[in-house]
């Protein structure tokens, strides 16, 4: 497959999930779109050198989101978490899940998303987060526990 | 408790509800082939470069020690107390000291002291070293190996040039010519360090090496010493334990059979006569009468055994008074370092350097050595008479401002490069 075809196919399949992944972490849809688009642009520039585009893109999105969160941590502390318009979904269960997700740490959010939305294995989550397997298990365990605790309160 | 699969379903439903509008892929491709944003990528490098330039400018502009120690100094400073070297002291090659006032050995290291009186640098090359009269170069050779090679280290650049004698002989530097363009060596086919030795002269301009004196037989107990006349065209040398009070004069440009120079008078009973230094005003001896009085004033040293010099004796009417200076008695380990203009000599002792006036008024202490023993102390003989004694602090920092600034700039650039690489790795 030519690089351009590869790009189009991967872009079509992974753009939306990656934006959602970024959004879960950064809590801002415009920021999530910027992050993901930057990652695709960077990938396109070196498309011949990337063997596993999906894993590469996931890892790049998580890495950039972490940087973004570090830069904006103070803003987030003062400005709340998720965009209110998005949190205010019509389904109360969805609202509850989004609020619960917003209470996780950025690393826990990414781990939960990768594990339960993208159905990655725990080793794949660890690789994407660039952390040891034990750390990934801990992030998932703590993230899941906090989600369960919050959802049970509702 | 909500089971894990139920939580997964809820997460999936919540995330799927996030509205995502996918822009056309062509838009991203256009961005990819468009101009990058170099300012963001290279900003750490630019910041580091700016900081480095600021540090360099500050190092040059700030008052105090010069950027190139010892270079272009209007005055030459000798410290009242010699500071010791440390393991952090840079070498001449790493951080050239510039014009230097002294050379000495401490803790097994040969060290030069720049004319600012505070900058110390270790010589990189091992061997016997001799500082030039103008303090700009050091000649180094190994008298224990018959390599026929000598290095001349430029103290302004730290670079060494190798010169070859053209024969496999051991070389021991004896003297620099007053203009710093020639060096006289003792030459030995078998390196012993003492005993019969010839004298050869290296011309730094032509790179030619001229043997001017062959080893003399029956001179196996002493040490050859030599000194140039003021013009640099003759070498007055002792042939090493030559019995009788005899020196010999050798021409350099056109080597000729040696001319014996009788020494008598105040040097009564000498077994060995060695020439340690001619006054700067000394010129060529009278060709028709090689008597000592023809060389005003000539410093002589009397060695009683194996080149151990026990007193300095003088010949020649330097002051036009008709009276010769009284001999100066030397203690064990004392060494003649050079003339202090027309009024006295510098003598290196075990604890420091003293100035001994020729009028016998007693010695004046100059530089005191530190706690560690200092040996083989030498002065840049052309600079020493112009030098001033100064109470200078050796300074806690062993590097020059220029070197410090350079290293700081390199560290900043390295840190900036690391930041850039790390950011790039994160992006990928």
Automatic annotation (TrEMBL), chain A:
Keywords: DNA-binding, Sigma factor, Transcription, Transcription regulation
Keyword field contains Transcription regulation: yes
PANTHER family reported for this sequence: ECF RNA POLYMERASE SIGMA FACTOR SIGM (PTHR43133:SF50), RNA POLYMERASE ECF-TYPE SIGMA FACTO (PTHR43133)
InterPro entries documented for this protein: RNA_pol_sigma-70-like, RNA_pol_sigma-70_dom, RNA_pol_sigma70_r2, RNA_pol_sigma70_r4_t2, RNA_pol_sigma_r2, RNA_pol_sigma_r3/r4-like, WH-like_DNA-bd_sf
Origin species: Asanoa siamensis
Annotated RNA polymerase sigma factor 70 region 4 type domain residues: 96-147
Full protein name: RNA polymerase subunit sigma-24
NCBIfam families noted in UniProt: sigma70-ECF (TIGR02937)
Family named by the database record: Belongs to the sigma-70 factor family. ECF subfamily.
Domain RNA polymerase sigma-70 region: 11-72
From TrEMBL, chain B:
Key words, A-Z: Membrane, Transmembrane, Transmembrane helix
Domain of life: Bacteria
Gene3D superfamilies: TolB, C-terminal domain
InterPro entries per UniProt: 6-blade_b-propeller_TolB-like
Residues passing through the membrane, by range: 45-64, 402-421
Protein name, entry field: WD40 repeat protein
């Amino acid at each position: 497959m030519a690089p351009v075809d590869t790009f189009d196919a991967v872009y079509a399949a992974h753009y939306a999930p990656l934006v959602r992944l970024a959004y879960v972490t950064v809590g801002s849809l415009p920021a999530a779109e910027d992050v993901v688009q930057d990652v695709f642009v960077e990938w396109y520039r070196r498309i011949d050198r990337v063997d596993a585009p999906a894993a590469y893109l996931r890892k790049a999105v998580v890495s950039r989101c972490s940087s973004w969160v570090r830069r904006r941590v103070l803003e987030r502390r003062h400005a709340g978490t998720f965009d209110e318009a998005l949190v205010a979904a019509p389904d109360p269960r969805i609202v509850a899940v989004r609020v619960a997700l917003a209470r996780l740490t950025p690393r826990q959010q990414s781990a939960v998303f990768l594990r339960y939305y993208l159905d990655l294995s725990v080793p794949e989550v660890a690789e994407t987060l660039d952390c040891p397997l034990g750390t990934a298990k801990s992030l998932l365990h703590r993230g899941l526990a906090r989600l369960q605790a919050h959802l049970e309160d509702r | 408790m909500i089971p894990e699969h139920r939580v997964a379903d809820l997460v999936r439903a919540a995330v799927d509800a996030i509205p995502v509008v996918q822009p056309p892929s062509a838009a991203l491709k256009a961005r990819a082939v468009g101009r990058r944003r170099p300012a963001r990528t290279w900003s750490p490098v630019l910041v580091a470069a700016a900081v480095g330039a600021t540090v360099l400018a500050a190092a040059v502009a700030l008052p105090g020690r010069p950027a190139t120690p010892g270079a272009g100094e209007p005055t030459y400073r000798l410290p009242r107390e010699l500071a010791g070297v440390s393991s952090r002291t840079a070498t001449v090659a790493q951080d050239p000291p510039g014009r230097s006032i002294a050379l000495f050995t401490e803790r097994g290291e040969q060290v030069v002291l720049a004319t600012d009186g505070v900058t110390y640098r270790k010589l990189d090359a091992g061997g016997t070293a001799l500082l030039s009269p103008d303090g700009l170069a050091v000649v180094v050779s190994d008298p224990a190996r018959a390599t026929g090679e000598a290095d001349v280290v430029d103290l302004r650049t730290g670079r060494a040039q190798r010169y070859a004698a053209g024969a496999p002989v051991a070389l021991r530097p004896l003297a620099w010519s007053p203009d710093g363009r020639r060096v006289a060596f003792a030459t030995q086919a078998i390196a012993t360090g003492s005993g019969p030795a010839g004298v050869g002269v290296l011309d730094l301009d032509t790179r030619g090496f001229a043997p001017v004196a062959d080893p003399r037989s029956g001179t196996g107990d002493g040490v050859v010493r030599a000194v140039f006349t003021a013009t640099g065209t003759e070498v007055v040398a002792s042939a090493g334990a030559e019995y009788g009070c005899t020196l010999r004069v050798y021409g350099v440009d056109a080597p000729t059979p040696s001319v014996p120079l009788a020494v008598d008078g105040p040097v009564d009973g000498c077994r060995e006569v060695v020439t340690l230094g001619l006054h700067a005003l000394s010129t060529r001896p009278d060709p028709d009468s090689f008597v000592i009085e023809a060389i005003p004033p000539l410093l002589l040293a009397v060695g009683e055994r194996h080149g151990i010099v026990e007193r300095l004796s003088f010949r020649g009417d330097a002051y036009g008074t008709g009276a010769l200076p009284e001999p100066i008695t030397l203690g064990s380990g004392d060494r003649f370092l050079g003339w202090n203009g027309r009024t006295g000599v510098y003598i290196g002792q075990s604890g420091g350097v003293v100035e001994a006036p020729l009028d016998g008024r007693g010695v004046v202490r100059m530089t005191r050595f530190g706690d560690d023993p200092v040996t083989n102390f030498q002065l840049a003989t052309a600079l020493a008479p112009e030098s001033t004694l100064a109470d200078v602090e050796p300074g806690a920092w062993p590097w020059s401002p220029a070197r410090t600034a350079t290293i700081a700039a390199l560290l900043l650039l390295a840190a900036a490069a690391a930041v850039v690489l790390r950011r790039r790795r994160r992006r990928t």
